[in-house]
Amino acid sequence: MANHASALKRMRQNEKRHLRNMSYRSKVKTAIKKYLLSLVEKSEGASGLLSEAASLLHKGVSKGIFHKNTAARTIARLSSKLKVA
Q1: Is 9 helix (H, G, I), strand (E, B) or coil?
Q2: Is pLDDT above 70 for 22?
Q3: Are residues 49 and 31 in contact, defined by beta-carbon separation less than 8 angstroms?
Q4: Is 4 helix (H, G, I), strand (E, B) or coil?
Q5: Domains and CATH numbers, the chain
Q6: pLDDT of amino acid 4
Q7: 8: number of Cβ within 10 Å
Q8: Considering the entire predicted model, what is its pTM?
Q9: Is 85 helix (H, G, I), strand (E, B) or coil?
């Protein structure tokens, strides 16, 4: 357990950031799952769901939640699935 006030504050900040990041990651995963499910069902709105998921990933990069190459790789893989379907 930390003894210094600054270390205690850092722990509180890390906990808040951790919760925020996990919430955002969950939102991104849900968007990706919706997109992949629409591909399986061959529904019309797949490209719209892809752009929504890509937008969330890009925003996550700007917030520091995802690395830019991770987001780019994920978007590339998702868009290649759209071309195949």
Answers
A1: helix
A2: yes
A3: yes
A4: coil
A5: 5-84 (1.20.58.110)
A6: 93
A7: 12
A8: 0.85
A9: coil
Residue pair 39/46 in contact (Cβ under 8 Å)? The answer is yes
d(CA 80, CA 85): 9
DSSP conformational letter for 66? S
Q: How far apart are the first and last CA of the chain?
A: 53
| Long-range residue pairs from 73-82, CB within 8 A, at least 24 positions apart, any chain | 74/32, 78/32, 78/35, 78/36, 78/50, 78/53, 78/54, 79/50, 79/54, 81/36, 81/39, 82/39, 82/46, 82/47, 82/50
Which of the four pLDDT bands, split at 50, 70 and 90, describes residue 61? very high
Distance CA 70, CA 83 (A): 20
> What gap in Å lies between CA 10 and CA 16, rounded to an integer?
10
Q: How many angstroms separate the CA atoms of 66 and 37, rounded?
A: 23
